[in-house]
Amino acid sequence: MAPPVTVNTINPKVIECEYAVRGEIVILAQKLQDEIKIKLEAHPFEEILYCNIGNPQSLGQQPITFFREVLALCDHPPLLDKSETQGLFSKDSIQRARKILDQIPGRATGAYSHSQGIKGLRDTIAAGIEARDGFPADPNDIFLTDGASPAVHMMMQLLIRSEKDGILCPIPQYPLYSASIALHGGTLVPYYLDEATGWGLEVSDLKKQLEAAKSKGIDVRALVVINPGNPTGQVLAEENQKEIVKFCKEEGLVLLADEVYQENVYVRKKKFHSFKKVSRSMGYDEKDIHLVSFQSVSKGYYGECGKRGGYMEITGFGADVREHIYKLASVNLCSNISGQILASLVMSPPKAGDESYESYISERDGILSSLARRAKTLEDAFNKLEGVTCNKAEGAMYLFPRINLPEKAIKAAGEAKTAPDAFYCRRLLTETGIVFVPGSGFRQVPGTWHFRCTILPQEEKIPAVVTRLTDFHKRFMNEFRD
């Protein structure tokens, strides 16, 4: 008798869905790491250098002290009544923990909350958004989620009715988008970022792709914009953002703004502007544009990936539609409470005059300036490699260099039944222990090859990454030279 579940009988949408950031190369890296633990000399390197995923604390980044103090006190309120706590925790972390506990029903972080998240925390986040943008924010527009990913899934569930519904997505894109569109049965409508102009977004290309999709009978529902960019690391200029907002308004598209890297900007001439701030500054309000902004506690300078905190701010949707968004949130009961607390702290960190302010600023600026230095070092190293070009890392946590591979290497990849950039990344891993993600996992202009590298290994390990990569690349190019 055939087994009840086989690859042929599971949901075909699951098979179609791919997620390269934790794909084949990473699975191999974990296997090699296990082999090194058993026998150190099993491979020509002593450790795996994970440059595949934006997971800062796994690579040694320390959490922000104030955030963790508040979390600890909220999770174990009896500490607040102990005399020694005053000497161990800052005054403002004690005050903040008391305030947050007063907002939690039953003062218990182990209890369910309202499906949108704890009201007092949403009030704090709304005030943080208002302070950032200079325009009002409504706590009822905020849905707290387990990181930004479930919020993206929720919106895809809401918008996609069949394969005839399309979502405009940047190429290269973060695989969450292609995966969630596939899972929910929609069609990804690609628009290509222009590598020659520093991964610029051309509205003329958006229009072209929109018309092409319409001619195939696809109803394009939304436009995804990732700013700062993942995997490409660019920061959009405000004028460009205005063009995008105008395009969405004119075409009746929902603007899905992935803004999880808003703190990660490394060039002086660029600043982060939220799409909500841009649209409001243009005079557009709720009735003019449907806008969803995503934020996460996993990125920025906080890097609290494992705490799974985030939110989406939804504006422009009618009360009847919002009821159904609330229903989707309710199916999951609520997001985890630690993540909710962290999201409120990220949007309302210590202020000048608070006891923790100096240490908080020192920790924040130390992390961000180190990330900027690491980005520059890696960018320079990539541009020195034969046949490799790399755009400036303006923001986010990644570089996406382009590699012109010799024909022999492309042929060898074909014989190995793998994409040429995956072939390169696999060889890099097995010879050096460095984990990059092939560009083919993010999609790219056909005929071009890339890889994504995070800037997250600790600063003292960056020289080792550069040396190992440089030596490998020379060997690889010599081996496959035409």
UniProtKB/TrEMBL annotation:
Residues in Aminotransferase class I/classII large domain copies: 103-468
Top-level taxonomic group: Eukaryota
Gene3D superfamilies cross-referenced by the UniProt entry: 1.10.287.1970, Aspartate Aminotransferase, domain 1, Type I PLP-dependent aspartate aminotransferase-like (Major domain)
Pfam families linked to this entry: Aminotran_1_2
Gene Ontology molecular-function annotations: L-alanine:2-oxoglutarate aminotransferase activity; pyridoxal phosphate binding
Gene Ontology terms: biological process: L-alanine catabolic process
Biological or metabolic pathway of the protein: Photosynthesis; C4 acid pathway; Amino-acid degradation; L-alanine degradation via transaminase pathway; pyruvate from L-alanine: step 1/1
CDD domains attached to this UniProt entry: AAT_like
Enzyme Commission no: 2.6.1.2
Keyword annotations from UniProtKB, A to Z: Aminotransferase, Pyridoxal phosphate, Transferase
Listed cofactors: pyridoxal 5'-phosphate
Keyword match Transferase: yes
Top-rank EC class of the record's enzyme: transferase
Similarity remark: Belongs to the class-I pyridoxal-phosphate-dependent aminotransferase family. Alanine aminotransferase subfamily.
PANTHER family assigned to the protein according to its UniProt record, in alphabetical order: ALANINE AMINOTRANSFERASE (PTHR11751), ALANINE TRANSAMINASE (PTHR11751:SF29)
Assembly, per entry: Homodimer.
Protein name: alanine transaminase
